[in-house]
Amino acid sequence: MTATQIDIAVVGAGPVGLGLALHASRVLPHARVSLFDRRELAQDVSADPRTLALSLGSVQLLQRLGVWPAEAAQPILEVLVSQQPPAPLPLGTPEVRIRAADEGVPLLGAVLHYGQLVAPLQQAWQQAVQQAPQRLLSRFGTAVGALKPLPDGVELDAGIAERFDLCVIAEGGVFAQQARKALARDYGQTAWVGTATLQGGAPGRAIECFTRHGPLALLPLRDAADGGRRGALVWCVNAADDPVRSLDATQRQAVLNTLLPEAAGRIVGLSALKDFALGLNAERSLVDGRSVRIGNAAQTLHPVAGQGLNLGLRDAFELVQVLRHARDIDAALRRVEWTRAADRWGMIAATDFLARSFTWQLPGLAAARGLGLAALQAAAPLKSRLARQMMFGSR
To answer: I need a labelling partner for 27 at 20 to 30 A (CA). Which of 19, 20, 287, 369 fits?
Structure first.
């Protein structure tokens, strides 16, 4: 296959689609790559404030591409997972602390805004297009209307019908806006997201707190221009009995300070919060003929572990690596399905279990979760194994 040209269409110019297209442009020298996205190239994406949490493995993949914006990203140096209320248990305090220093790595991951990552990825892709316009094409401002399977490829309709050997769909979107896939579950939960201004706490500390309403995360961001500490908030609650919606900013801030552990510091300011419905929406298979779905187009997960983007980037890089070494496309796609299965289904199962556990009304469930956290903290080898899986996925 490496001696024969392969025409690849990539649909979606988010971080996963751009990462795949850029990686393919470099390691598949005989590939003709066309990147489609409905937004116009002139649209400024750099100011998009959505928060992304990336694992160390994802940071390393982006460093290999030369697009990691280290100056914009806040390294995660410690993750604290706790149970609220933090009452002592027989095995100890119901919390787990994972530190980069204990794992022998410079950071566990990093946090930055969507635009801060997509802008350098897009710039690098456009530079690659300028250097090799005969085989790399940008098709921004071009919505893909339909895909038609062919015996040896895919027909893509983006105003005109075009044939490709392979189509990679990386255009995901949020759960509420997606057509339902083969495995779909509405968790009946809402995520409230925004930015908190903090007083105290340690730089680079990420907080995940299990409350009776759902998981509450506070991810470290780069300090504000005035030196104030900031954190990205993800507050998940029951949608049918939402304790957040009716509160004003002052009340929300007060409630958050009762829920977060002391190690988080104190919230002294809170932005307006946006709400998103949460659910699982996943394909049973990444591959359908000569079409491959990756990232949110393949699986949209609950944000409880912050692993959706990381899983998508691993999908993208594994696909390109397999194409690089396979003798033919169909053999490559069979291998991708097989090699991605453990990582993909392990993460789907873990996040689905954690998300659904907050809807269970079982006596002692919160205490059992707290005991589990305390036991994990005491079992150093098991905790280190979990940390490695969060950093690099199942390998």
So the answer is: 287
DSSP codes of every residue in 64-100: HHT---TTT-EEE-EEEEEESS---BTTB-SEEEEEH
Q: What is the DSSP letter of 393?
A: -
Residue 276 neighbours by CB under 8 Å, 6+ apart: 174, 175, 176, 190, 191, 193
CA-wise closest residue to 57 among 124, 113, 103: 103
Average pLDDT over residues 5-9: 94
Which is it for strands 161-164 and 153-157: parallel, antiparallel or unpaired?
antiparallel
* Sequential DSSP letters for 344-388: HHHHHHHHHHHHHHTT---TTHHHHHHHHHHHHHH-HHHHHHHHH
- Sorted by where each begins, the domain ranges of the chain are 6-45+117-181+281-355
Report the pLDDT value the prediction gives residue 366, as an integer from 0 to 100.
72
CB-based contact 31:286 (threshold 8 Å): no
Adjacent-strand bridge partners of 81? 96, 208
* Domain 6-45+117-181+281-355 CATH class label: alpha beta
> What is the residue-wise DSSP string for 332-349?
HHHHHHHHHHHHHHHHHH
**Which residue from 210, 246, 264, 171 is spatially nearest to 85, judged by alpha carbons?**
210
pLDDT attached to residue 173: 81
**What is the model's pLDDT at position 7?**
97
pLDDT at residue 2 above 50? no
Residues in the chain: 395
Per the CB < 8 A criterion, the answer to whether 147 and 167 are in contact is: yes
Query: Please, how many CA atoms are within 13 Å of residue 274, restricted to the half-sphere of its CB?
Result: 7
331 in helix, strand or coil? helix
pLDDT digits (tens, 9 = 90+) for 179-192: 999 999 999 999 99
Q: Is the pLDDT of residue 206 over 70?
A: yes
Q: Is the pLDDT of residue 32 over 60?
A: yes
Q: Which amino acid is at 157?
A: D
- The pTM assigned to this predicted structure is 0.93
